[in-house]
Amino acid sequence: MLRLRPYKACDANTITKWLKSEYAFRQWSADRYEKYPITAEDMNLYYDRDKDNERIWGMTAFDDTGIIGHLTMRFPNENNLEEIRFGFVLVDDTKRGKGYGKEMISLAVQYAFDFIKVKKISLGVFENNTAAIECYKSCGFRTVELKDVESYHCMGEVWKCIEMERTI
User: Fold this and answer.
1) Alpha-helical runs (H) found in the chain
2) Alpha-carbon distance 144 to 125, whole Å?
3) What are phi and psi of 24, to 5 degrees?
4) pLDDT per residue over 119-147, tens digit each?
5) What pTM was estimated for this model as a whole?
6) Cα–Cα dist 109/86, whole Å
7) Within 13 A of 16's CA, how many CA atoms are on the CB side?
8) What pLDDT digit, counting tens, does each position of 41-69 carry?
9) Contact 69, 61 (CB under 8 A)
10) How many CA within 13 A on the CB side of residue 43?
């Protein structure tokens, strides 16, 4: 049975090992980190920038075998506590395709709606990450058309984001 708990600095030792290619790394982090590969120290330095920001936090998914996944939650709008945005969603690469991503996202959705009491959950996912898109759809997220499509320069290409959301 999968469970969620707050991210701890020691989790980075495991999470960073799941990013075995720069392509997967960029799908996870876009341009948020300067170099690949990252170390646990790099990840914790990045997260330490927001350690006193009550509007963003990391969550770690785990079961009896250990850490399975990770994501962040944040309030994207300063004066709006009705929307949470998921980010940095990642599942252990050796456990993909077994339903862990869906279970983790479902737990995070339940946490956001039942505990934080938001009315909407949003996320962005690169259009080249079809497995993640299908996972989010299976958890009730739908694609939202935006006037301005977010894109990033990754690995010599321009990667477009798909905006997705789920409401109560």
Assistant:
1) 12-15, 22-29, 40-48, 100-110, 130-138
2) 12
3) -65, -40
4) 999 999 999 999 999 999 999 999 999 89
5) 0.96
6) 9
7) 18
8) 999 999 999 999 999 999 999 999 999 99
9) yes
10) 26
